[in-house]
Amino acid sequence: MLAFVTGGVRSGKSQFAESLAMKIAKRDNKSLYYIATSLRTDQEMDERIKRHQANRSNHQLPWGTCEKSKDVGMLAERFSKKDVILLDCLTILLSNEMFHASRQEFSNEFSNKLFLKIVREIEKLKMASHTLIIVTNEVFHEKVSTDRGVFLYTKLLGKLHQHLVESSDAAFSVEYGVPIVKKGSCI
Question: What's the rounded Cα separation, in Å, for the pair 61 and 177?
């Protein structure tokens, strides 16, 4: 099963996704895993990471954590159909893949290859698990930058969102801490 969770920054999407993962794991007697894609880049990010870790440790069900900023498909062999995986978040994963590699010329060919790479890696995680929940940021309410790299990033993220929602079993948008079902349901 694939669930897609989106929302604005600080909308409560990660908290909702964690709650969803725990409900599925408890209902179906599965293990919980968290794939963290964030890099510790500054004090604010370090505090956010610590807050997320504390939230997960305060629950009755234990979480395993994998820190993987790129190439998340390589983790698939660690999981089984006994696992519920929460990947947080696609927005940062794409940024890591696109901007932290050797400096790329941001061509359409590069964008297409990266799209296919990320889709394949997510498919590997989905196939290796009972449930994969993907968290992402809604960044499409802002004016799009004219910078070539940022423009292609935004375009690629939108393309990934559309593909993942289309192939998902459930999709949610979280606004002000309130999840809104956009497609299906898995709880």
Answer: 22
Q: Is 37 annotated as a binding residue?
A: yes
Identify the CATH number of the domain in which residue 16 sits. Answer: 3.40.50.300
Q: What is the C-alpha radius of gyration for the chain, rounded to an integer number of angstroms?
A: 16
The answer to whether residues 34 and 1 touch, using CB atoms and an 8 Å cutoff, is no
Residue 39's domain comprises: 2-183
pTM equals 0.90
Is 149 annotated as ligand-binding? no
Identify whether 59 is a catalytic site residue.
no
pLDDT tens digits, residue range 74-102?
999 999 999 999 999 999 999 999 987 66
Q: What domain count does the chain have?
A: 1
